[in-house]
Amino acid sequence: MNDSTHWIRTRQSRALIGAALAMSLALGAAFVAVNDPPPDAPAQHGAALSDAQAAAQVVDAAREIVATAGLREATGGYTFMSCSTGDEPPYQAALYMSFAVPQATSAQYLDGVASAMAADGWAVSAVVGEHFGHKLTLGGVISDISRNPEKPGFATMRLYGECRNIADHRDDNPAWTDVSL
């Protein structure tokens, strides 16, 4: 054995090479985990949506849900939210809606709303990091339904469209657009 290659067979060099390979593997896995969107995240691919198309995605879904589930006293509005960590494009339309629920049976009522949506084609999605409510998806739109703790006779539904609007909405005035549901 040559003295110049003997160092590679020592216990210390093998440990160093093993640690370097393990660190590379760990950093690669961390990169994939951090950059991989959650399974129910809005789609970020496909053709860009105009402002009207992005708004229609959530407004039309909200109107369909109001009709399908028979929601009472539904009111709402939408805005454009950045899908990035900053305030940069792409954006998604986000609609916040409230509707009346019977106080005594609000949890059962919301179960019925989710069931009506599921019967209309919405798929139940895992509710990540939440302990109550319902999350459903359909056609790239995510719906998140929960009781309104500040107003016991009402529930809140948030609808999020796809991240495909590339217009700059940082200076929208007004930021919220009310809609009739």
Automatic annotation (TrEMBL):
Keywords: Signal. Residues 1-29 form the signal peptide. It comes from the Bacteria. This is Lipoprotein LppJ.
